[in-house]
Amino acid sequence: MKWRCMCLVIHAPEDLRLEERDAGEIGPGQVLVRVGMGGICGSDLHYFHDGGFGTVRIQEPLILGHEVAGTVAAVAADVTSVKVGDRVAVNPSRPCTACKFCLEGLPNQCLEMRFFGSAMRMPHVQGAFRNVLLCQAEQCHKVADGVPLTLAALAEPFSVGLHAVSRAGSLLGKRVLVSGCGPIGVLTIAAARLHGAAQIVATDVVDEPLAIARQMGADEVINAATDSGWVARYSPDKGTFDVLLECSGNQRALRDGFTASELAEAQRGMLNFRRLTRAQDATLAGTWAANLELDRSFARSAEVDAAISRLTLAQVNAALRRYIDPARIAIVFAGDFR
Ligand SMILES: [Zn+2]
Ligand SMILES: [Zn+2]
Fold it and tell me: How confident is the model at residue 98 (pLDDT cuts 50, 70, 90)?
């Protein structure tokens, strides 16, 4: 059966087009997913506005998108893990299974990772913002009947928060500081709450995401731009927090977070490291491509739904242009492109 495949293709900054492409033939071990919902990630925004990030640049037309969920439309004869009609979250990463990290059981560190909607490799790995998507059966994670596809589309970013939390060790009874309340930050707050943190304080420099942070389970929120005294309040006696989860990528947030955290046993789940300004006796944990946790991400908390905006395709262009609504953690759009 031939499938008509409509795709959102980025050609250059701010040049996003809806194009028809060949959906491809289903090969052994493969599944065709009718995409229902897609989450717009920060990386999609960077491709749209800047044509990439860091040294990663669009060198050829790229179908955007990697946070998607949908319904299985067809499976290869040898696929038994999912069947037609199953609702699935799609894991965007496809490790090679053969490099030294894959063999060590660390597929998230794969040297030959193929990640949907990524310009890191040439040719680029085409993305998942399309009405039908061909993927490997292992990439399809069945979701329970009660889980809406809007939430299933957030499985991948939520898995980042779950992974950061697992790197920080047990949070039971711990005081946790989360710096940065973008989508990853607030999903990390939800993860920390689920893992038994006693107190969660969240910082950002904009009020709207801080309001979402509260909805997601933060006990206290601080606008670091207007409340310059916050670090001093939390730094006496060698600091207040047991765990710092740095989700902003901002060097000042990192430095302030260190100052406010206890010297001796602070363990840090980090998304990004640059230069550290203070030598401390602390355990530092970097997180990268957290797919080890993707399965667990369906143990989601109901709060997440409150923070989602739903868009039709026609609104996606406009949404990308004005960046993500700061009052929402994630924008999820319907994948019905017809
Ligand atoms: Zn993402
Ligand atoms: Zn590998």
Answer: very high
pLDDT attached to residue 270: 41
**Would you say domain 158-286 falls under CATH 3.40.50.1820?**
no
pLDDT over 70 percentage in the chain: 77
φ/ψ region of 297 (left if φ > 0, alpha if ψ in -120 to 50, else beta) reads alpha
- CA 68 to ligand 1 centroid distance, Å: 10
Distance 302 CA to ligand 1 centre (A): 20
Instruction: Look up the pTM and report it.
Output: 0.79
CATH topology of domain 4-154+300-334: Quinone Oxidoreductase; Chain A, domain 1 (3.90.180)
Residue 265 has pLDDT above 50, yes or no: no
**Cis status of the peptide bond prior to 123, with omega within 30 of 0:** yes
Task: Kindly identify the ligand whose nearest atom is closest to the C-alpha of 111.
Answer: 2
When pLDDT is averaged across residues 9-34 and rounded to a whole number, the result is 91
How far, in Å, is the centroid of ligand 2 from the Cα of 292? 14
Ligand 1 center to residue 232 CA distance, Å? 34
